Amino acid sequence: MTKNGYNLRSVLSLFSSDLAIDLGTANTLVFARSKGIVVNEPSIVAINKNTGEVIGVGREAKDMLGRTPGNVIAIKPMKDGVIADFKVAEKMLTYFIQKAHNRRMFVHPRIVIAVPSEITSVERRAVQDSAYRAHASEVFLIEQAMAAAIGAGLPIDEPSGNMILDIGGGTTDIAVISMSGIVYSRSLRVAGNAMDEAVMHYMKKKHNLLVGERTAEKIKMEIGSAFPLQKPLTMDVKGRSLIEGMPRTVTIDDSEIREALSECVATILSAIRVALERTPPELSADISDRGIVLAGGGALLKNLDNRIREETGLPVSIAEDPLSCVVLGTGKMLSDFRLLRLVSVDGN
Length: 348
What we know:
By secondary structure, this protein is an alpha+beta fold.
């Protein structure tokens, strides 16, 4: 190849720097080809209500949650794994794509985005349109559970059953995968955010204490569990008393938060049971040998693996890097277009 031809190709490859995106309800992760994960930030945008100007995106905007003056609002454009605010989602995507490309303006990457398995065609179109408006040249969508299974290193192309449970911020995706195809999948809109809300509700009801989203998430992460712990944990929680209206601190323990989270955990367990009942017998035999692999931030809930093991009698393991499984699996698609065409949702 001529030197000029080579130069042209390297210039083109510079501008077609493909990206894989895990567009999550809680966090958005971006994987750039040959670079790895380049963005990992909360899916939040802070906007000036009066001017419509974006004040901050991602981590910067999360720090403003619950602390902004009246004219600045922190918006989460994603709800239950899908786009709830189209314009804000587009601004957020544009920001993250530019950040992934070091603020280069004229980049038109091919983008692979992971989406929940049960999103409607309208919701799917909204994700694609947002990516195109954020200057993507081509957009592919793949199911989150499939991406998580690939990212967790499961042998999805073999003729044997693999079961993955991906608990994100907005959705919990369960899938049984064999021969690069999804045999059974289900998406629940009960996941990390619903757990945070359950903690907020519990604190209000039991302790007459009003706590914000960030505090609820901290409680869940520090002392939340799905099964009794070997060593009890306690935590001092600061909030606003609903009775006096003044700041107050209460001490809570892990058994209280386990009670607060019990309904969310029960819903996820029930969905696992349904998935196991609907799996063909040959694949069920594989799953009883290999067990269930947990991915997503929810996989880090203390003793969730023990609780699932106890209720199903199956081996349960947590993926090596549960928070990054979906984006890593989506990232693998960038260098394997054959597999991408096989697993993409819209048959691109």
